[in-house]
Amino acid sequence: MKLYCIGSAGGYPMGDNGTTSYVVTSTDEQFHLLLDAGSGSALAIEHYLPVNQLNAVWLSHDHPDHSADIGIFQHLFFLKKPASEHGMIPIYLNENSKLWPIMMDDASTKALPYRIQEPMTIGPFKVQFIQTTHPVECAAIRLEEESTGKVLVYTADSGWQDSLVEFAMGADVLVADTNFSRSFGQNVLHMTSEEVATLANRAKVKHLVVTHIPPQADAEQIMTEVKEVANATIKVSRALPRTEWEF
């Protein structure tokens, strides 16, 4: 599998770093899943692959730094030529999302509901969800590639919750919301550097990817704190645009 960072900023974009968006690519490189569509992602994705090669889109929640470009992606699928290589593109939204009224429904895309309580299959991936601790309903996602058993967990946005430990257990890659330094303390918005490292330790993940650091934060301080707490056996990376990880 491959994970590609389109944008990783929390809250608002800065410079060439848009807000949260990733592409997960299957090991055979035949399936490309977009995780979230933050600000600037519809343009920046072209650094990785032509947008018409995407197979599916999934949104964790409605906050604009994760969903701002979803309408632009629909315009791209509808208007940009050549058309999608895969026909109709499913866009998976939380069944309780407030975005349903603005979603297009035509031959190029179809908005489909997912239910946090119900596992599903998206292309070559077995998928599970868990509701996170956040001001609006938000889902973390666990993707297991059926052909290889590789596991990617993306927390989306969440404050600390014990249930994330079991959800992320044994993941090859954990992409974790790390919005605050440890001094901020536990809260219901986002995890701190210490909480993210603790989650990686307790879940025994192999690789921790730190995401959602806001532009106004001291990113170096946050990364230092993560590495101080994370076990030495865990690889720690900061998510930055155009970074690709293969696992």
Gyration radius, rounded: 17 Å
Main sheet summary: 7 strands, mixed
Taking pLDDT < 50 over at least 5 consecutive residues as the criterion, the unreliable ranges are none
H and E string: EEEHEHHEEEEEEHEHEHEE
According to DSSP, the number of beta strands is 14
The SS-based structural class is alpha/beta
Helix share of residues?
A: 10-25%
Largest sheet strand order: 6-5-4-3-2-1-14
Please state the overall shape, judged from the principal axes of the Cα atoms.
globular
The number of helices is 6
Q: Roughly what is the average pLDDT, rounded to an integer?
A: 97
End-to-end Cα distance, whole Å, is 5 Å
Describe the fold and architecture.
With 247 residues, the chain is α/β, with parallel strands linked by helices. It has 6 helices and 14 strands. The strands form 2 sheets. Strands 6-5-4-3-2-1-14 form a 7-stranded mixed sheet. The protein has a 7-stranded mixed sheet with strand order 7-8-9-10-11-12-13. The radius of gyration is 17 Å and the shape is globular. The mean pLDDT is 97.
Can you lay out the helices and strands and say which pair or pack?
Layout: E1 2-7, E2 21-25, E3 32-35, H1 41-44, E4 56-58, H2 64-67, H3 70-79, E5 89-94, E6 109-114, E7 120-122, E8 125-131, E9 139-145, E10 151-154, H4 163-168, E11 173-177, H5 193-203, E12 207-211, H6 219-229, E13 235-238, E14 244-246
Parallel strand pairs: 3-4, 4-5, 5-6, 10-11, 11-12, 12-13
Antiparallel strand pairs: 1-2, 1-14, 2-3, 7-8, 8-9, 9-10
Helix pairs in contact: 5-6
